[in-house]
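# nightly structure sweep
# worker-07 picked up a monomer target from the shared queue
# config: single-sequence mode, recycle default, output format = structure tokens
# input follows
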Amino acid sequence: MLTMKKSYLFFTIIWAFIVLLNCTSPLHAARIKDLASIEGVRDNQLLGYGLVMGLNGTGDDIKKAVFTRQALINLVQRLGMSITPDVFNRMKTDNVAAVMVTADLPPFARPGSRIDVLVSTMGDATSLSGGTLLMTPLKGPDGKTYAVAQGALAVGAISFGGKSAKVQKNFPTSGRLANGAIVERTVGWQLPPSGDLLFELNVPDFTTAARMTEAINNQFGVNTAHSPDSGTVKVLMPLDYRGNVVGFVADLENIEIEAATPARIVVNERTGTIVMGQDVRIATVAISHGNLNLIISETTDVTQPNPLAAGQTVAAPQTNISVVEEEGNLVVLHMGVSIGEIARALNAIGATPRDLIAIFQAIKAAGALHAELLII
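# output follows
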């Protein structure tokens, strides 16, 4: 009886292990929706010019900002009030700021839906805190109005002080309106009724395109997808999904594949930032890196005569130069080491980010770096 229980437990564990292996996604797998997008399904940028009211003396100086003064005159006239430029010039108005309003119109946005907008100052306004954006049309590159923005700004910054001191956190000259714009017009694009789609890879790569094509064909049948180049994959809708384009796209974009990443080292010399991809490999190479410090100091020796003696005070400068060279440890990196081994080896010789930049450039020049070195 005990033996039968042990056998049953053993087979249960084996069965659970097999099920776990079958359900486990591939290593470094990513969904198709994260690697590619459907041609035409994208955001559209909108731009508008508006006025922010209600500022506490932190707006534009209308005597200097010509565009703010002209916009205020046009606004007052559209509201039915008559005012001459001479009268307007004698007014002191510092609670108004001219701003540029930007937004992204998402695909398939319908009239009446709301989108977020970003508001940024144009003139010499110092803060938009407490301001309200007046009705601002947001236009596309074709000059048509696609949305209208209006509402109270959320700045998320503070700025206060006096003539000799000032405290500031974040940037008070820009703010956001969450759901502050109402869509008035849609972009005239729809999914093709036939369901034949063209996917564009975010990062063109032949290996990723081939894996994506293979995964789609395994899921929906042979000849469902084919890739004409490294950046696109054409997909034909199966007969089972005719009339259900949304369902087909939903099932397709959730297929997981293993994306191929290029072997690349990105170096930012301004900030000392280094990012290495997982496929970076180097040939067998020996690295020695030591710092040479040159120290120059100057002192002045003053020679002064006795109080009652004749003579002059003489200042003689003395220059001291010393050279200190730190010991350089020789580290050998063997062929095909991983990124973790590279990091441990370079940390062992005490290399700083600035040193690593010089080391990688030297390895690249020696022809031992099997990766692209990108300096930005």
